[in-house]
Amino acid sequence: MPILSFEECLGKIREICETEPISPNVLNFLELNDIQEQELKEQIEKYDGEVGVWVHPYFYCYFDKDFKIIFSDEYHKEISIKVDEEIKKQLLEPSKPTFLFIENESVYRTSVYLSKYNNSFQNSNKAYIVPTINGSPCPLAIENTPTTMLCRNGIGLGLEVENWIKLLNSFHNLKTKKINLAGFDLMLDKKEEFEKLYPERVLMYAELFKQFQKAGIEINDYPALCVGTAAAFFSNYFQVEFSDLTSPHGLKMLTK
Fold first, then answer.
1. Is the peptide bond before 248 cis (omega within 30 degrees of 0)?
2. φ, ψ for residue 246 (rounded to 5)?
3. pTM for the full model?
4. How do residues 40-95 score in pLDDT, each as one tens digit?
């Protein structure tokens, strides 16, 4: 009898455990077929290239055995409830396309949770799940997607950049122009400390600071953690806006 690898064992476990149906309106962005991609592209063009991106929106929650949401962190409970309500609202009302960056280990349970909600309504909007490396906003690799775009500032951060470039390339091909960012977490790292600890990331933030300056926003320190890092990558190709549905800082708090 052949010995299974760790990845194959996980696959077998998922086949046994992951049996709940997932709505056709909850899609893995990395697995879209040509028809689904064209539908998404048309939706993005309808909203003049603007999309909503939620980075780890359910980070401070979990789903019980019946896939009901449990807000487990008291400090983040209020904003987590608001985030969940806003995502549901976007899935029901006419709105720009909604992307949810979800840690890979939570993709299935999040997809089932949204499916149970989504299937209660007709004509629901689609939720596009972008699986990320656990504990990071870095997307998983998009298979068979050539790296045709080089980061504008020649950033060299290895696999993380390769994965991001493939995702940015996909967003670019879908005619995306503007990213509205929300989720967990976002805060400022002091300029001197950030540049000392992460000198290789300084150039990555150049376009984001240019956008701040153009918008009349005075921020000298570096937006960090998962939402801040995602903003830095997206800003190299798209206009970026922060929602106040972030924690512990929203845009209003960043600019105080």
1. yes
2. -135, 165
3. 0.85
4. 999 999 999 999 999 999 999 999 888 899 998 888 899 999 999 999 888 888 78
219-247: b or e for each residue (b if 16 or more CB lie within 10 Å)? eeebbbbbbbbbbbbbbbbbbbbbbebbb
Q: Which residue, among 42, 41, 84, has the nearest Cα to 62 in the 3D structure?
A: 84
- The answer to whether residues 138 and 132 touch, using CB atoms and an 8 Å cutoff, is yes
Spatial separation of the C-alpha atoms in residues 215 and 218, rounded to whole Å: 9
Taking only the tens place, the pLDDT of each residue in 137-162 is 999 875 544 433 333 333 334 567 88
Tokens, residue 84? 């969940």
Whether residue 99 contacts residue 53, with contact meaning beta carbons closer than 8 Å, is answered with: yes
13-25 in b/e form (b: 16+ CB < 10 A) is eeeeeeeeebbeb
Q: How far apart are CA 49 and CA 218, in angstroms?
A: 26
53: helix, coil or strand? strand
The pair of structure tokens assigned to 5 is: 């690898």
Q: What pLDDT, on the 0 to 100 scale, is given for residue 218?
A: 82
Both tokens assigned to 228:
């801040």
CA distance 40 to 242: 22
Residue 123 DSSP code: T
Question: Cα dist. 116→3, 53, 66, 92, 183 in Å?
Answer: 37, 21, 10, 13, 22
58 contacts 127 by C-beta, under 8 angstroms: no
Contact 202, 181 (CB under 8 A): no
List, in sequence order, the alpha helices (H) in the chain: 6-17, 34-46, 74-92, 107-118, 159-173, 191-197, 206-214, 225-235, 251-254
